[in-house]
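Standup notes
- DV: blocked on the single-chain target, sequence here:
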Amino acid sequence: MNRYRRRTFALELFMVAAALVVGFPVYVLVNLALRAPSDTSSPIRPTASPTLENFHQAWKQGALGGALANSVLVTAVSVVIVLAVSSLAAYPLARVTARWSRGTYLLIMLGLVLPFQLASLPLYQTMRDLGLLGTPWALTLFYAGLQVPFTVFLYVGFLRALPRDFEDAALIDGCTPLQGFRHVVLPMLKPVTVTALVLNTVAVWNDFFTPLLYLSGSAHQTMPVAIAGFVGQYATDWNLIFAALVISVVPVLAVYFALQRSIINGFAGGLRG
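- DV (later): unblocked, structure below
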């Protein structure tokens, strides 16, 4: 049996301290979201009379229903496109050793180095010429291009560590390279796919600058922009802001808990790989 040692006790104390550091902002967020606007006491003090009226007012005043639907649409479509394009592009880049493959991979990696703000004006003009300004499809195209270099980087690194025995056997049995990728390689990419899914979803869902730029003046707002609308020049209702933030977090948490086992297994598989 393992003995309970001082090192174990110190590790437990460290984990408890880390949990408190992470949990304290969440406590303040939920505490203020449930607090009546008339209560101006310290945000650390527990709310004496919790109320759900802040959620109702935030949902109504901020038109969060439409914003939530837009965020779900943009995030889901963008992430699906990014995963599909990145996995298909990474497969030949990782398996082919020709000079063009290395050059193409380095060219794609430039997307990780160059800040997208440098292309904000040309991209805005392009979206305007295409008639996509003010629509969620402008964000979908933007995120599909922005997130591909990083996702390709993840897939290529994972693919290079995978043995080629199974896919070579599939090619010998008569599979085409695309069939071998679909039936043999793609199932083995589940760990890195789950990792890319989580990272891309969080990045797209929480983005504020791009929706503010491409959807300004339209009715198609995303959650971060809708929440920012509660901040006024002369007055700010922090209780409604915190209530809106809780509403914004709920869909992401729901997806996480629904896919919790797959996400944990995916990260664990990626670490083993």
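- Follow-up: Residues 64-95 form the longest helix (32 residues).
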